[in-house]
Design brief:
2 helices, alpha+beta, about 25% strand, about 190 residues
Length: about 190
Amino acid sequence: MRRIARRTARRTTGRAARLLTGTALAVLAAAGFAAPAHGAGTRAAGLEVFPATAVPGGRVSVSTTACGNGGAATGDAGAVGAGRFPLAPGAYGGEAAGRFRVPPSAQPGTYEIVAECAAGGRRVTGDLVVVLASDRQPVAPRGSVKTGVGGALGPDPVQTAAGVAALAVAAAGGTWLLHRRARGDGI
């Protein structure tokens, strides 16, 4: 009877594990098709801008497959003040790619980046968001860590001395009580 119960438990556990795994994979797949997160690349009308959010002075890459295999293009980031830049054919499935630097004087806002294919004159656009501070840049910590313990002398040496004195009195009292108990005087 126990063997049957164990087999049934194993089957149930296996089914539950497969069900949970399948559900988790479905959620991950759905998340992959959701809108890109803030700062990820965006594809708008055939032009991918990465990162989609940049700081003044930062580098931005753009790419498109709109120009076909081996197609080159000319990019224009004049809206943000960066001017024109080339998009050269790449090794990734006919994708033309290029880079430009956001000018240090760029103001926060959303700017349209344009690429025009050399053959055929097809125009594709994408958006670039300029912000003053990046979420990805680390911020140096300032001050001390507020753990509640304090330093060796703490913020107030008088309080530290009072605490040490209280601990010494407690240790002496505990020792005296243990000594009385060992002698048999009672507590």
